[in-house]
Design goal:
Strand content: 15-25%
Radius of gyration: 24 Å
Mean pLDDT: 94
CATH class of the largest domain: Alpha Beta
CATH architecture of the largest domain: Alpha-Beta Barrel
Largest sheet: 8 strands, parallel, barrel
Number of helices: 17
CATH superfamily of the largest domain: Phosphoenolpyruvate-binding domains
Number of domains: 3
Structural class: alpha/beta
CATH topology of the largest domain: TIM Barrel
């Protein structure tokens, strides 16, 4: 099941993709990581899906990553008399903490933290930005607004406050329960929603305590103001364009996407581009040309992975959507311009022995025409560094740790393989050449560039580079 591409594919599981046969079809079509979206479904359903994935992993002999995506705080209006109301542009509309059903003049908003952050002229976006309200007057338990963009508003629609930092943890009581559940099941990635500041990432890391890697979803403008600090604290980053596209003008999203990808790549952190990438394939067997171009742009920018959401969770053409994404990635990576962009966007290595070795490995592999770079890693740090270099040959990530192998399934250009514990140079070379041959990366007489750290098993101690020949 070798993937002959660098960028990876994340597929969200849902009602359209919960059986063993359907999940297997997604994997065979090209999915490398599966996302369990805890905004929907029960813990029991997610457990069943995880168990299916682990069985498929054994069946195919290939590590598969699993991401638990936490719901995060959901800010919503309350209920209306009759379930809905029509808001007209130019009219007044009140939000308050009263529990009484709403009308076309007011509605309950059971979130005091929103009122605490408001001030006159602040805009609130309701129902994914379809309705815009501007604050005229406000207090700790109310806001009088003017309807800027009207429309029909129904019960429990979401509320966004783009210009304010809300006094909310990124983890609700539900998230904490789901987090404990997922960690006990053994998920590989925790995707953290509603991050506004670095402290939210630090809070999550403390709770996770190294039992899974932390992926920060960048979907709030406030998070962009602290981008460098958040990327430093995270293990990976997601450009969550759904909420981000509501909270910032649409014309700003492409530039922010490029900024986040560039910042993450510079830090050597995997970066995922997500939301509505092939959205028309929820109901159509083919994407629009604009959607194909959108996926291609993320790949040209050097994203580690691209993600499918509704396309595979509820879509009528789930496997076809994965296969289409696979084809687009292949086509981009075979373009000569793609390699030129990777070379131009490469960042200088940091002044450490580990970075010097991995940068040299990329250069040596290119100079001697090596078939692959082989990394030996216990925590994944050696392989993450190799991927940061975006070499023009595949990266074989060998590790004795199943959890590390699953993490590496999402990293650009890496083919993760479970191997034995190593104790000597001879074992390292033997395993590298054997696996490269067995996995179809190198034939007799071809060269490999091998990096590792000595003593073996010491995290972050990449200090050896070796050229070996496959016999």
């Amino acid at each position: 099941m070798r993937r002959r591409r660098n960028a990876k594919i994340i597929a969200t599981l849902g009602p359209a993709s919960s059986t063993q046969s359907r999940i297997a079809k997604l994997f065979e079509a090209g999915a490398d990581v599966f996302r369990l979206n805890f905004s929907h479904g029960t813990q029991a359903h997610h457990k069943q899906r995880l168990e299916i994935i682990r069985k498929l992993e054994t069946r195919y002999g290939r590590p598969i990553g699993i991401m638990l995506d936490l719901q995060g705080p959901k800010l919503r209006v309350g209920e209306f008399e009759g379930g809905r109301a029509l808001l007209k542009a130019g009219e007044s509309f009140r939000l308050d903490l009263s529990g009484e059903p709403g009308t076309d003049r007011r509605v309950p908003l059971p979130h005091p933290e929103i009122f605490a952050a408001l001030k006159p002229k602040t805009d609130l976006l309701v129902d994914d930005g379809r309705i815009r309200l501007r604050v005229v007057r406000c207090g700790p338990d109310f806001a009088e607004t003017k309807v800027i963009t009207g429309g029909e508003l129904s019960d429990h629609k979401g509320v966004n406050v783009p210009s304010a930092v809300l006094d909310l943890s990124a983890l609700t009581a539900k998230d904490r329960q789901d987090l404990r559940f997922g960690l006990d099941l053994g998920v590989d990635w925790i995707a953290l929603s509603f991050v506004q500041k670095p402290e939210h990432v630090a809070e999550a890391r403390k709770l996770i305590a190294g039992r899974a890697a932390v992926m920060v979803k960048l979907e709030k403008p406030a998070a962009i103001d602290h981008l460098d600090e958040i990327v430093t604290l995270a293990d990976a980053v997601m450009v969550a364009r759904g909420d981000l596209g509501v909270e910032v003008p649409p014309e700003d999203v492409p530039g922010l996407q490029k900024l986040i990808i560039r910042t993450s790549r510079h830090a050597g952190k995997p970066v995922v581009v997500a939301t509505q990438m092939l959205d028309s394939m929820v109901h159509s067997p083919t994407p629009t040309r604009a959607e194909a171009s959108d996926v291609a742009t993320a790949v040209y920018d050097g994203a580690d992975a691209v993600m499918l959401s509704a396309e595979t969770a509820v879509g009528e053409y789930a496997a076809e959507a994965v296969a289409m994404m696979d084809r687009i990635i292949h086509r981009v990576e075979s373009d000569s311009l793609y390699r030129k962009i990777m070379e131009a966007e490469r960042h200088a290595p940091e002044a450490t022995a580990a970075d010097a070795i991995t940068a040299a490995a990329r250069q040596v592999a290119s100079t001697v025409g090596a078939a692959a770079i082989v990394t030996f890693t216990s925590t994944g740090s050696t392989t993450f560094r190799a991927a940061r270099e975006r070499p023009n040959v595949p990266i074989l990530g060998l590790t004795p740790n199943p959890a590390t192998a699953r993490l590496l399934a999402m990293v650009w250009g890496v083919h993760p393989v479970l191997t034995r514990e190593l104790h000597s140079f001879a074992e390292m070379v033997d395993d590298a050449t054997r696996v490269a041959s067995e996995e179809g990366f190198a034939g007799p007489g071809e060269r490999l560039v091998i990096t590792a750290g000595v003593p073996f098993g010491t995290p972050g101690a990449t200090n050896i580079l070796r050229i070996a020949w496959v016999e």
